[in-house]
# Entry
Amino acid sequence: MSNRLAIFDCDGTLVDSQANICMAMESAFERAGLTPPLREQTRRVVGLSLVEAMQNLLPDADHDRHQSLAEDYKDAFFEMRTAGSVHEPLYDGIGEVISTLDSEGWLLGVATGKSDRGLKFVLEAHDLTDRFVTLHTADRHPSKPHPAMLEACMAEAGATAASSAMIGDTTFDMAMARSADMLAVGVSWGYHDAHELEAAGADIVIDRPIDIPAVLKELS
# Structure
């Protein structure tokens, strides 16, 4: 029998990091002498790998400019973290959800557009590192919605698509889950609206973290 695996997105699903992301994006554009995007525009691309996010925000620029902006973003975020100004709180109830799933025998993973360094920082800050058996980021995989991160999570956890679920807040997460042929659980407290998640293939959209264990038990 395959292991049961619950794979979480990070930004907008586990933690509320939008203020940090928006500030780093504004800094990156300002360093390049460009008008920063509106915060709503930035929230729309959370979850994509950085170069792909820049392509969405500045579609008329060339690849070199997109790569340069991605590096500026990384530098800005690192400077914020070094200065101690990065605050990425868990959404209310997420800690309890992780404990409940763990106690019920679920293996836990993360598939995120964050960097390895950024994810490590979040998990260490909330003392969650040991709760996850598989962690995959944009540093080592194609951008969402490509299913590579989910495939790697399943391989490491000894799970199959039929015994796994992807839990995320963006259309990229839902499309990624559909590409991997696994359960797609959308959450409404993140960066994309519920109707968008449904249109992207969510099997269900939930409004409260505390409902995650019951939903997985019912649908898996």
Observations:
- The chain has a mean pLDDT of 96.
- The longest strand covers residues 159-168.
- The beta strands are 3-8, 107-112, 134-137, 159-168, 183-187, 204-206.
- The chain is about 45% helix and 15% strand.
